[in-house]
Structures are given as structure tokens and as C-alpha cells.
Amino acid sequence: MILTLVKALHIAALILWCAGLIALPLVLAKHDEGEAQADYARLRRITHYGYTRIVTPAAVVAIAAGTALIFLRGVFVPWMFAKLVAVGLLVALHALIGHTVVQMSERRGDYVPPSAAPLLAATMAIMIAVLLLVLGKPQMPDLTPRWLDTPQHHQLPFGATPT
Fold first, then answer.
1. CA-CA distance, 136 to 20, in Å (whole number)?
2. Dihedral angle sign, alpha carbons of residues 26, 30, 32, 35
3. How many other C-beta atoms can be found within 10 angstroms of the C-beta atom of residue 126?
4. Against a cut of 0.85, is the pTM above it?
5. CB 50 within 8 A of CB 22
6. I want to staple 29 with a disulfide (CB 3.0 to 4.6 A). Which of 23, 73, 99, 116 is the partner?
7. With 90 as the cut, is the pLDDT of residue 158 above it?
8. Measured torsion, CA atoms of residues 78, 83, 84, 89, in degrees rounded to the nearest 10
9. pLDDT for residue 163
């Protein structure tokens, strides 16, 4: 039962996070250098609250629930580590979008947001990669060096731990 609840929480949070990673660049692209103060303030509030109150908490919950799922299911296989690399890339895009939200609010008229197209293309590509890895669970070679998998029968390089 706990596994089902954690998985449902993970999927719900992922839906919110991924939707936000798609929507925020589109909203940020609506900013125009010559826009009126009221329009600017409205878009700034939408992006700020969307990022801080919806997208970031959803990302934290998705990552926490995903981490719990790894340990609940004991999924320590190469495709999972490839998926974690892809999730790390999503986190980097999340941070880039957050940086853009901050720059838009602090440097009004001074900062032109990046085009939404490259951010959306990168986000969609990474999301598709994650889906393919999770749903396909492909057989991947284990690239772990053998010396990390086998005991070396050496003592630790320091003395006994004081008690």
C-alpha cells in the first residue's frame, strides 16, 4: 500500500513539475521590453508565484518521492542511474528558469529573457528520455569498475575511531 501511495505522489508531483517547466518559459517569453507597468507586474507575479509556490515544491516532492521509490523497490540498475542523470539535467533547467525569473524581476527593462524554443526543446527531450528509460527499462551495460564491486581486504587509512 505504501508503495502505491508513494508512486502516486511521485507521478502527481512530476506532472506539476513538468507542466511548470513547459509553461514558465512560455510565460517568460511574453515579456516585452516596451510593455506597460501593469502588464509587466502581472506577468512577473505569475512567473514568480508559479515558480516559487507550484513548480519548485512539486520538484522537491517529485525528487523526494522518487528517491523513496528507489529504496522501496531496490532499483539499483544501470538504467536507473541513467534516469537520475536525466533528472539532474531537469533540475539544471529548473534552476536556469528560476534564474531567468529572478533576472526579469530585478532588471526590469534591462534583461531580455531567452527564447522559449531552446528551453522547451531541451525540456521535452529530457522528459522523453526519462519516460523511455522508465517505461522501457533497457538493458544497459554496467560501467562500474570491478574494484568498486569487490572487497579489497585492506584496512582503512586511519586508526580506530575514538569513542
1. 25
2. negative
3. 20
4. no
5. no
6. 116
7. no
8. 140
9. 63
Share of the chain above pLDDT 90, in %: 62
Instruction: Tell me the pLDDT of the chain averaged across its residues.
Output: 89
Query: Which one-letter DSSP state was computed for residue 30?
Result: T
The helix (H) or strand (E) run that includes residue 139 is none
Q: Which residue would you say has higher pLDDT here, 107 or 62?
A: 62
Question: What cell was used for 117?
Answer: 524554443
Which residue shows C-alpha cell 539532474?
88
Cell of 25: 518559459
At 142 the three-state DSSP class reads: coil
Cα–Cα distance, 124 to 30 (Å, whole number): 20
Give pLDDT, residue 109. Answer: 65
Are the beta carbons of 130 and 88 closer than 8 angstroms? no
Q: Is the dihedral of CA 25, 6, 137, 71 positive or negative?
A: positive
CA–CA distance, 66 with 28 (Å, rounded to integer): 29
Q: What is the pLDDT of residues 29-56, one digit of tens each?
A: 887 766 777 877 888 889 999 999 999 9
Cα–Cα dist 113/87, whole Å: 24
Question: Which set of grid coordinates corresponds to residue 151?
Answer: 572487497
